[in-house]
């Protein structure tokens, strides 16, 4: 082979290597862009009918309290080669995400909520305008932003080993309450929107605002080109008829049992009455009430006492001898 032919072969090899390198770089960049777009698009989805029976209560003051509850699921998400989902594994059950939040489209004519327009920018552009949450015209309605469960932001991990061992998906529950002014204000149905809370712990204010475009509406626009607000879709449900609130139990006044109070203070010192000597009687002691017979008996006793004393202290024999001169 001539030197000119060898130079041509070397040039062809260099061009081939450079072309392969450029294709590799371009392909990697394309995959990165598509993955980031899909990650932005993917969010948890509501599942089945969100309402539970008996959650619409007619209050005594005419208002109606609606308690909405349901479940959400965040699938692993390999819908296509260019769609990245939640890479939930047994070692990283929430991937690197923060979790799932939610907001409800109450369709309340007295409190329309916040108007938001969600847009899908991947492929064919689609947009959807919704009214979500409450503006707080009734002080009880405080859902002016995205709600989430701070104890279980990512719900529960379910290991399926699909598509690889250790892989799975996350599922959780959502709950929200709204008070309507009257039964006439009740809509036909309500809808729930679930939101991706992003990557920060705790979620950033943007992710907790209803303008967070990473949600189930945008995800439906990406996959289907529309977001259905009818009850046939898994994000909406028909409200059951309101039921009357249970009557308040009659309260009866019962007397509380007497409570013995124990004092922890020192008991008072006992009062001591000073000892006093009995008063001496005044006047002369006299025998009263004996009469004459009593006086004679007392005199006789005195005489006997005197005789006794004489006999005790005087020697009778010597006295008799002295008297008789013996």
Please characterize this protein's 3D structure.
This protein is an alpha+beta fold and 326 residues long. The chain has two domains: 24-244, no CATH class; 292-324. 25% of the residues lie in helices and 21% in strands. It contains four helices and twelve strands; from the N terminus they run αββββββββββαββαα. The chain has helices at 3-41, 216-224, 291-313, 316-324, and strands at 45-47, 56-58, 64-74, 100-105, 114-120, 126-132, 147-148, 156-159, 168-180, 189-196, 236-238, 243-244. Strands 1, 2, 3, 8, 9 and 12 form a six-stranded mixed beta sheet that branches. A four-stranded antiparallel beta sheet has the order 7-4-10-11, with no helix packed on it. A hairpin with a 5-residue loop joins strand 2 and strand 3 (64-74). The relative contact order is 0.15. Mean pLDDT is 77; it is low at 14-41 and 283-288.
List keywords for this structure.
326 residues, 12 strands
Summarize the structure.
The protein has helices at residues 3-41, 216-224, 291-313, 316-324, and strands at residues 45-47, 56-58, 64-74, 100-105, 114-120, 126-132, 147-148, 156-159, 168-180, 189-196, 236-238, 243-244.
Assembly type: single chain
The overall number of domains is: 2
Element pattern in H and E: HEEEEEEEEEEHEEHH
Low-confidence stretches: 14-41, 283-288
Largest sheet: 6 strands, mixed
Q: Roughly how many Å is the radius of gyration? A: 54 Å
Give the total of beta strands: 12
Strand content: 15-25%
How much helicity do the residues have?
Answer: 10-25%
N- to C-terminal separation? 203 Å
Mean pLDDT: 77
């Amino acid at each position: 082979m001539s030197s000119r032919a060898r130079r041509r072969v070397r040039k062809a090899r260099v061009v081939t290597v450079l072309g392969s390198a450029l294709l590799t770089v371009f392909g990697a960049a394309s995959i990165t862009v598509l993955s980031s777009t899909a990650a932005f698009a993917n969010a948890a989805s509501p599942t089945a009918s969100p309402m539970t029976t008996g959650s619409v209560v007619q209050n005594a003051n005419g208002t109606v309290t609606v308690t909405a509850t349901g479940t959400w699921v965040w699938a692993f998400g390999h819908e296509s080669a260019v769609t990245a989902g939640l890479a939930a594994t047994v070692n990283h059950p929430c991937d690197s995400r923060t979790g799932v939040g939610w907001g409800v489209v109450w369709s309340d004519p007295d409190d329309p909520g916040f108007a938001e327009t969600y847009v899908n920018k991947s492929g064919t552009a689609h947009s959807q305008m919704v009214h979500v949450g409450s503006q707080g015209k009734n002080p009880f309605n405080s859902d002016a932003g995205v709600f989430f469960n701070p104890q279980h932001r990512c719900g529960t991990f379910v290991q399926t080993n699909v598509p690889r061992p250790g892989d799975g998906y996350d599922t959780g529950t959502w709950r929200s309450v709204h008070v309507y002014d009257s039964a006439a204000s009740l809509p036909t149905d309500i809808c729930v929107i679930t939101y991706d809370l992003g990557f920060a712990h705790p979620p950033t204010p943007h992710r907790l605002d209803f303008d967070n475009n990473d949600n189930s509406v945008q995800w439906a626009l990406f996959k289907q080109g529309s977001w259905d607000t009818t009850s046939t879709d898994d994000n909406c449900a028909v409200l059951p008829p309101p039921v009357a609130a249970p009557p308040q139990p009659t309260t009866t006044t019962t007397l509380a049992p007497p409570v013995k109070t124990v004092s922890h203070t020192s008991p008072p010192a006992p009062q001591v009455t000073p000892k006093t000597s009995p008063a001496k009687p005044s006047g002369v002691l006299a025998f009263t009430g004996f009469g004459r017979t009593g006086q004679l008996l007392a005199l006789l006793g005195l005489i006997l006492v005197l005789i006794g004393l004489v006999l005790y202290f005087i020697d009778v024999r010597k006295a008799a001898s002295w008297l008789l001169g013996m």
